[in-house]
Amino acid sequence: MLKPGDRLPAGQLYEYVDVATEGCALGPNVVDIAAAAAGKTIVVFGLPGAFTPTCSEKHVPGYIARAAELRAAGVDELWCVSVNDAFVMGAWGRQLGAAGAVRMLGDGSADFARATGLTLDLTSRGMGVRSARYAMLVVDGVVRTLDVEAAGKFEASDADSMLRRLREAAAA
Predict the structure, then answer these.
(1) Catalytic, out of 31, 44, 55, 70
(2) Hey, which residues does 145 pair with through a beta bridge?
(3) How far apart are CA 3 and CA 144, in angstroms?
(4) 12-171 fold
(5) Domain boundaries, the chain
(6) What pLDDT shows up at residue 21?
(7) N or C: lower Cβ tally within 10 Å for the chain?
(8) What per-residue confidence (pLDDT) applies to 125?
(9) Quick check: pTM over 0.90?
(10) Do strands 142-148 and 77-82 pair parallel, antiparallel, or not at all (unpaired)?
(11) Known active-site residue 55
(12) Cα–Cα distance list, 111 to 9, 19, 81, 84, 168 (Å)
């Protein structure tokens, strides 16, 4: 499993963009993980699935609500990663109002989840292999902190916990 001090695995995630911008065409865009993380401080949080209860009611909304505070604490970008395709992640992001706050990145084949060792097998519940619930602070592609939740828990990967860790690190 990925741990602090490790570099994010090479690979790709996918992002659906509603409005074309410089470098991003309308529709699904490939996000090269190494290139996107280079030179940036990023909070990457993973969760089991789009439109699922805890993810939709607490996890993503918390990061959207705290996005400005996290940026003020030195975070350049917030990435939500889930084992869903870019179209689903885009629709979910629109429903939650994530634009401008959180990048909604699809890991449709669970390649990133497997490469990090942060998988959750929900086959018995009809959901297949998914991402575990976690949050990590990544600086220039290197993991600085990683909090992985126990199955069914939501206690350490939330935005408030990440903000607290950032403030404690700044005060030290």
Answers:
(1) 55
(2) 137
(3) 8
(4) Glutaredoxin (3.40.30)
(5) 12-171
(6) 64
(7) C
(8) 75
(9) yes
(10) unpaired
(11) yes
(12) 10, 27, 11, 11, 33
